[in-house]
Amino acid sequence: MKREAGYELDKVQRGDAPKGWKAMPNIGPGVREIRIRIGGAWRVVYVANRDWAIYVLHAFQKKTQRTSRRDIAAIESALKEMR
Is the dihedral of CA 79, 45, 30, 9 positive or negative? Predict the structure, then answer.
């Protein structure tokens, strides 16, 4: 999972779109998640609204259809701290 996440984040850093991503406007502007399926469902949530940086806000294994409230709180907290 780490290797795939690193590969997809490298694509973002080079200005390309990652393979499986989704915008998360309900969390904040510019927040996106990369979806990875290797030995389960994994998510890497990041914001790349600066030309010179990508901020990984949270990475976690997803075990249900809905993102848990705890994971959403962690993402929102990291975004608040970043700003």
Answer: positive
Is pLDDT of 68 > 70?
yes
Rounded CA-CA distance 12/48 in Å is: 8
Q: What is the 3-state secondary structure (H, E, C) of 41-76?
A: EEEEEEEEEECCEEEEEEEEEECCCCCCHHHHHHHH
Residue showing tokens 């976690």 = 60
Token readout for 18 is: 């990652």
Among candidates 60, 55, 57, 41, which has minimal Cα distance to 12? 55
Report the distance separating Cα 71 and Cα 61, nearest Å: 10
Q: Which two structure tokens, joined as six digits, stand for 3?
A: 């290797």
Higher pLDDT residue, 49 or 57?
A: 57
Q: What is the pLDDT of residue 50?
A: 66
What number of CA atoms fall less than 13 Å from residue 24's CA on the CB side? 21
